[in-house]
Amino acid sequence: MIKLVAIDIDGTLLTSDHRLTQNVCEAIQLAKNSGVTIVLCTGRPLVGIAPYLEKLDLLDSTTIAITQNGALVQETQSKKVLNHLTLTVDQVKRIYQFSHNQKAHLTFFDESEMYHTAIKPSQLVVDDAKLLHTHLTHLDVDKLTPDTLVTKGMFLGDPTEIDTLIQELPASFKDDFYMVRSVPYNFEFLNKQASKGKALQSLAESLQLQVDEVMAIGDAENDRSMLEYAGHAVVMENGTEEMKALATFITKSNDEDGVAYAIHELILKKTGD
């Protein structure tokens, strides 16, 4: 019996135009009412999912969210940090140095804010900050102190620029960072121990759940680790072929209420709701 469901947001929970449909809301509410724990599991910061947490009634004192691709785990109501895997100042400076020869635009995140490293942020960076509902500020990397908490670095650019960036990554980066491409126009650098899968596993173990009591729903590469971990790996019809190869169940697309369909088929039908 499924007792915990981890749901990705972009490309999964939300439609292509970033809407949360009534059908999906109702299915999640029914799952909650049947005793299932729901956790949103996203690359966004907590502030970037606040509207959806509110609409899904996931702002109570017992609900947590896995954000920043697993680098942050927080209580949704109090925003209390339960786990925060950060980058060192040296790692931040290495990413910044690497950015000098790249056309893609470098940004960094802390617990709640987004930072640009250019004198003036590009329109792509400004638009992404708006999408994430986060405040955008300039960061002077050279003035960072050892106690500065940086959650992740993220490049934004044309998909071809991101392709080039990936090809030019120093070999040492693969040993020192968890790197992931959530969407074609970005590429992220996180603490080596961070991932959605590791954060989900830690949560499941704290709830004393077995793997076959956990379901993960996703669509893209940053969902790989949680799809590999969960006993029930649900991939959206709009998901990548690589993720579909991991699936135990392929649901409808994000524009066809795929999350609602999966919940009805795998949870509600089995509980009689």
Automatic annotation (TrEMBL):
InterPro entries: Cof (IPR000150), HAD-like_sf (IPR036412), HAD-SF_hydro_IIB (IPR006379), HAD_sf (IPR023214)
GO molecular function terms noted in the UniProt entry: magnesium ion binding; phosphatase activity
Keywords carried by this UniProt record: Hydrolase
CDD domains: HAD_Pase
SUPFAM superfamilies cross-referenced by the UniProt entry: HAD-like
Pfam families (alphabetical): Hydrolase_3
Domain of life: Bacteria
PROSITE patterns in alphabetical order: COF_1 (PS01228)
Keyword Hydrolase in record: yes
GO cellular component term of the entry, any: cytosol
UniProt key word Electron transport: no
Protein name: Cof-type HAD-IIB family hydrolase
